[in-house]
Amino acid sequence: MTAPAIELKGISKAFGPVQANKDISLSVQKGAIHGIVGENGAGKSTLMSILYGFYKADKGEIWINGQQTSIPDSQAAIRAGIGMVHQHFKLVENFTVVENVILGAEDGAMLRPSISKARKVLLDLEQEYGLEVNPDAVIEDLSVGHQQRVEILKQLYREADILILDEPTGVLTPSEADQLFRILGRLKDEGKTIILITHKLREIMDVTDTVSVMRRGEMTATVKTAETSPAGLAELMVGRKVLLEVEKNAATPGEVVLDVKDLRVVDGTGVERLKSISFQIRAGEILGIAGVAGNGQSELLEVLGGMIPATSGSVTLHGQPIDITGRESDGQSRRRRGIGHVPEDRQVEGLIMPYEAWENVAFGYHHDPKYQAGILMNNSAIKADCAEKMERYDVRPPNPRLPARNFSGGNQQKIVVAREMDRHPDLLLVGQPTRGVDIGAIEFIHKQIIALRDAGKAVLLVSVELDEILGLSDRIAVMFDGVISGERLPEDTNEGDLGLLMAGVTERQGAA
Amino acid sequence: MDFITILQLLDSSIRLATPLLLACLAGLFSERAGIFDIGLEGKMLAAAFFSAAIAFTSGSVWVGLLTGVAASVALSGLHGLASITFRGNQLISGVAINFLAAGMTVVIAQTWFSQGGRTPALTGDARFEEIVLPGAASRIRDIAQQSPLGQIYSELISGHSILVYISLLIVPLSWWVLYRTRFGLRLRAVGENPAAVDTAGISVVGLRYAAVIICGVLCGLAGAYLATGLSAGFVKDMSAGRGFIALAALIFAKWRPWHALGACFLFGFLDAAGNRFQNIELLTFLSLTFLLLAAVSAIMLVIRAIMLARGKDTARGLLTPGIALVVSVGLALGLDALDPEAGGIATYLNTFVLPVQFMQALPYILVVVILAGLVGKAIPPRAGGEPYVKER
């Protein structure tokens, strides 16, 4: 048997008092797809950063193809044949594909010979691996899926034999993800070794040969994928049994809470983002909006949440009209009307990152009489309220004085959820509730949303995660290019069917 | 306005545009690499002082030039240290350099020369002389007797100092470096997304220092030209906001070298017009404005024609600048032909006289117009102003 492509022996790395990696050993065979799963903060990224030369390990050895290798910087990693596709692409957006590919791997001081050579090599690579991209396209004009191909091409152009992909499908549609996995299959057949970091267990089950689980900086298990199951992996990740399926009773929809008619939004550049959208949500019902990011879902949430004005249309809440075009179109007015909003991007819209948790808990509700002390804010009341919310919503660590940015993604989201849900809004707008949130917290947040529904409230759920939409929604609407391209009942559809609607194909094909 | 007046106006536009152009290209290199630099002004001022002072004491303008450049590079290094190595705020570092230079130059000048914060006047080899190209006339009386082409050659093309010609050569050179070399590719990349450069195994810090040093050299040339070419010696605050106008020109040019040439020439022209026409009749001002419009449309027409020849544009693209050219030339000539003594509208217009202050304020008015975004959206390099910190 040949030497493993990658062998890590006893890797340890600490950041101050935090032990990010504890004595980790890992061995990946050549030509294998190896998955690494773990919750946020389990140390996956740190481990890969050590392998790619971003950090230096405190202890331990790295062996590449049977040879001990030291990787002090990215340059050394590239020389050792390691390529990394980061979660957030490292592309220069206004450069062309070929310029991005040669950056740092030019053949000489002049550009033209490098570019024409790279163009030829790219065409070969594209054919070999099925990675079609126009070499002269500008990155910002490409879809996210194509940008990712450029990242992979970049690594192949540098003749990487070992590819590390960090959460590669987080930004892709289901069909783009399938294409990616086909490409990974081709790469594997050509003898490349692939490490796939993800928190999506389905992907691990579909494409990997072996899988390692990390928890709190330790490698808790390495198993053959064929010999495990999603439930088994989830248990290894979290350290306890986890419900992957959302448990819920059948909905009992009541009267209409939200009634949206002919809602149109034209943005500042004159592009029509919402083209005459109409729908209703009843009390005790969750309406899930599926769709590829950028098809108008964000604008829908922003209009309803009062963040941007609509161009035309009408919205009523319990039969009473809401001012969506004029002066009352702001978050404060919406909250007074009983609309809670968990925005899509918690770090930009949901929280002020340098502010402490207790301050964040009061935002938007700072006029609440219980937070007032005469003309001043009653800070100790807010802190007490925050501590109590943190307790009930299981925010860890339960410290109101900690700045929002010091919480993990899941706990940040729980702070926002606690703030918005705890007032029992008649209508809750939720955007991407579990984006970048680990499995344990996902379970918790889903339970909260279901509980709100069962309390007879209306919920509008926008998510790009089809699992989440299918699991939570009582009805599903799919948005494509600013219109609702179709409505389905969750028991009456599947990912393939929704995927077609998300791509704008409206004819019903082969759904159960 | 006769032909020679227009030529003289353009000639002094070139002189006045030169320091702007050098400073603008200096800013271009720095900002393209992601380091904002509002310290152009201070660096020019320091270079102006040291080049004049050393040119005076050594008697050689070239030694002066080298010292001026060295002073500017030293300040650039300081800016680099603050904003690249120590990841400080680039605006504050730039402001500090401006203050430092404004105070330091005057204090040292007073200590060395005791002439009220200025250097003694430079003469002979301590100054960049005007180069008379072969076959060109240099005296105005001789020029006036030449053919129009000869007048253009003698008045406009010949008779500048070497730094003017160098600065004009730096424009295509900058373009070539930025768009045709590996260094240029990396430089542009580091201003857009330093993380991409870092993960490609290239040193972000090294690239940014290189850009900042180039900026220092070009700023040094700009300052030296101010004190040893445009004038003959250093006086307090002689850069007179040119570093800031260069920044406005850089935004106007959207961080592109050829456009920088156009933008700086426009500012140079306004400066020259302000100097030449002290109190200007509205009639003359209007015909001057249309003349300027005619020149801009002519340049646009040429650019469109080149693009058409390369197959990157359709013939319809020629239409707008073509019409603008015909209309503005017609209006300029028509207004010029009006006799202010003949009564009617011409006499009426001629009763208005624009004050000298208005003419001299023109470049600054244009700065405000440009910064208000009236000339289209200018997107700065995306990583500009932000120190690069490796993310986890």
Structure, explained:
The complex is a heterodimer of chains A (512) and B (392). Chain A has helices at residues 44-51, 74-79, 97-102, 111-129, 144-157, 174-189, 201-207, 230-238, 297-304, 331-336, 346-350, 357-362, 379-392, 409-421, 439-454, 466-472, 495-502; strands at residues 6-15, 18-28, 33-38, 59-64, 67-69, 82-85, 162-166, 193-197, 210-215, 218-224, 256-266, 272-282, 285-290, 312-317, 320-322, 339-342, 372-373, 376-377, 427-431, 458-462, 475-480, 483-488. With 512 residues, chain A is α/β, with parallel strands linked by helices. In chain A, the strands form 5 sheets. In chain A, strands 6-7-8-3-9-10 form a 6-stranded mixed β-sheet, with helices on both faces. Chain A has a 6-stranded mixed β-sheet with strand order 16-19-20-13-21-22, with helices on both faces. A 4-stranded antiparallel β-sheet of chain A has the order 2-1-4-5, covered by helices on one side. The longest helix of chain A is centred in the first third of the chain and has 19 residues, at 111-129. The mean pLDDT of chain A is 88. Chain B is mostly helical. Chain B has a domain at 3-256: ABC transporter involved in vitamin B12 uptake, BtuC, CATH 1.10.3470. Chain B contains 16 helices and 2 strands. A two-stranded antiparallel sheet of chain B has the order 1-2. In chain B, helix 7 (162-180) packs across helix 8 (182-192). The radius of gyration of chain B is 22 Å and the shape is globular. Chain A binds chain B through residues 45-46, 49, 52, 54, 73-75, 77-78, 84, 86, 88, 90-95, 99-100, 102-106, 108-112, 114, and chain B through 179-186, 188-189, 192-193, 195-202, 382, 390, 392.
> Quaternary state, please?
heterodimer
**Main sheet specs of chain B:** 2 strands, antiparallel
Which pair of chains has the greatest number of interface residues, and how are they split between the two chains?
Answer: A-B, 32 and 23 residues
Largest sheet of chain A: 6 strands, mixed
- Which parts of chain B are unreliable, with pLDDT below 50 for 5 consecutive residues or more? none
Low-pLDDT runs of 5+ residues of chain A are: none
Spatial order of the strands in the main sheet of chain A?
Answer: 6-7-8-3-9-10
Helix content of chain A: 25-40%
Summing up helix and strand content along with how strands pair, one would put the structural category of chain A as alpha/beta
Number of helices, where a helix is a run of at least 4 consecutive DSSP H or I residues of chain B: 16
Helix content of chain B: over 70%
Could you tell me the strand content of chain B as a percent range? under 5%
Biggest sheet strand line-up of chain B: 1-2
Determine the mean pLDDT of chain B.
90
CATH class of the domain at 3-256 in chain B: Mainly Alpha
